[in-house]
């Protein structure tokens, strides 16, 4: 067995200890499947992370990145954060045995409700904040907070427990300066776009974007392209359109405004957010405002569904476009330098799509060849 601190990477066949069931979801280099522990009969989720097998390859996740995710998961234990149960490793994959979170995404649950007051919305948001407060107390930044990573343990109860998932980008913030370009463009903070030092503040920006979407269904910075989205973030180009925020309280808008602040020193901390009067009313009048203000669920359902469709379509279109451009380019032709920081950031984000297509070429060769011949 290989060890990393307290983590143990068991060099045994996971199938010998768990019955592997249906696929629950997949990402760029990971597949999650339902599984049942043979010795106890308890259900879990098995996350199969494909390892990068050589330094020259773009496929898979680097060993040190997997180890970082495992180390962080080993260090955290909170009711609103997914729990790591076990770890296995074989030649091609690391398999994380995780708590089974089967209630689906929070936003999908909210879209099915008949009504939603701001008071009810803050009950869910408070759980998100509690989970993030725990992480930040340990100097851990999630760096990929978004609706898709806010799940429900069980959606059959009136107030389901929220679980934050996917710690693949999480980092422990140390004293030394840390910079990176990563995350989901729609939710990344300006300091990521501008390649500036990163800290816990980036998570607070993401919470601001999530809250904006929660109250309206609209996304504050989402543009028609990845470049436009990042430019909107860098320029702080957002507003509270009356069509979507006509019934939203000023308290709620104040909460969002104090999170979507470009200067990280002036952005609310997690403790500031928990103490904000929209989350923790200071008097009966503020509590009444929350109770009487409602989320326009019709708008939320319509706009959130459109956002999901647009993102899915854009990912496929962008990756296909990049692949065609890569194949058309001459081997000796040099790419023209990109002029600005936003353009450079776009280029960094787009590398993920190139990696996806490389992996697609390995597992779906016939379809890839056909696409190439028609481009």
SSE layout and pairing:
Layout: E1 2-4, E2 7-9, E3 18-26, E4 30-37, E5 43-50, H1 63-75, E6 84-89, E7 93-99, H2 106-111, H3 118-137, E8 140-141, E9 150-152, E10 162-164, E11 171-172, H4 190-193, H5 201-216, H6 226-234, H7 242-245, H8 250-257, H9 270-275, H10 284-292, H11 297-328, H12 341-363, H13 365-374
Helix pairs in contact: 3-5, 5-8, 5-11, 6-12, 11-12, 12-13
* CATH fold assignment of the largest domain: Transferase(Phosphotransferase), domain 1
**Biggest β-sheet: count, sense, barrel?**
5 strands, antiparallel
Low-confidence stretches: 1-6, 329-338, 353-375
Oligomer: single chain
Q: Work out the number of β strands.
A: 11
State the strand order across the main sheet: 3-4-5-7-6
CATH superfamily of the largest domain: Transferase(Phosphotransferase) domain 1
Mean pLDDT: 84
Q: Could you give the order of the helices and strands?
A: EEEEEHEEHHEEEEHHHHHHHHHH
Can you tell me the number of structural domains?
2
| CATH C-level of the largest domain | Mainly Alpha
Q: What is the helix fraction of residues, given as a range? A: 40-55%
Judging by the overall fold, what is the CATH architecture of the largest domain? Orthogonal Bundle
Share of residues in strands: 5-15%
Shape: globular
Computed CA radius of gyration, to the nearest angstrom: 22 Å
- Structure classification: alpha+beta
